[in-house]
Amino acid sequence: MINIPKNIFQRLNFSANLLTFAEFLLVLATYPLIRYTDSKWFVEDGLVENLQLIVCFACLVVAWHTPKDRPLFIFFGILMALIIIREVNMGRHWLCTAYTTKIYCSWSDVPFGEVLHWTRNIFTVFVVVYFFWRKVYRLVWQYVKTAPIYVWEFLFLALGSAVALLAESPLDNEPLEELAESLFYLAFLNCLLRYEKLKN
């Protein structure tokens, strides 16, 4: 039976950095952004999605260049690569525009579409295989037992993922969904930076 760590409350860390304040500002700005900005900011390939991709690439770079606990951080890097692939949908939107008269189309409508589709699926399987092959779960459990718990970052991770799911369905609110995803990615980047700096 797994022993639940007993020092959780001692490891709670409420400290904030510049990215934490950016996360707070994004939460506070969510309603004004939805209410008063151009809806084109939130469409596919729009301003918000492109900013998300910048944050995701930053996550990938930080994870890939972290010298300690390499299997764990490489896992986060390839996980972020998968998220980037998801965000751009393997470029299907651009291929649909280039090769068809549709903005959205099926994989079979574009050259090598099925190849791209299956490449994404294989890469998804690889992420899962890597997690078990490199025993990443052991490192995750070590962090669960001993690492500081950055309260604000985990709160924003949970808030971002929950609101994004609700905004997609049942709310069907694309601006809210994109802003919630942005919050999640920003908090994830902050977590990577904070845990990367830990000495032990």
Describe it.
With 200 residues, the protein is mostly helical. It contains nine helices and two strands, in the order αβααααααβαα. It has helices at residues 8-11, 18-36, 47-65, 70-88, 92-99, 113-133, 136-146, 151-168, 174-196; strands spanning 12-13, 149-150. Strands 1-2 form a two-stranded parallel sheet. The longest helix has 23 residues, at 174-196. The relative contact order is 0.17. The model has no long low-confidence stretch (mean pLDDT 89).
At a glance:
This protein has 9 helices and 2 strands.
Q: How would a crystallographer describe the biggest sheet?
A: 2 strands, parallel
Number of strands: 2
Tell me the helix content: over 70%
Q: Could you tell me the radius of gyration in angstroms?
A: 19 Å
Strand coverage percent:
under 5%
Order of helices and strands: HEHHHHHHEHH
The largest sheet has its strands arranged as 1-2
Low-confidence stretches: none
Give the structural class.
mainly alpha
Principal-axis shape: globular
The end-to-end span amounts to 26 Å
Number of helices: 9
How confident is the prediction overall: mean pLDDT? Answer: 89
Question: Which terms would index this structure?
Answer:
single chain; 200 residues; mainly alpha; two-stranded parallel sheet; 71% helix; globular
Please describe the topology of this protein:
Blueprint: H1 8-11, E1 12-13, H2 18-36, H3 47-65, H4 70-88, H5 92-99, H6 113-133, H7 136-146, E2 149-150, H8 151-168, H9 174-196
Parallel strand pairs: 1-2
Helix pairs in contact: 2-9, 3-4, 3-9, 4-6, 8-9
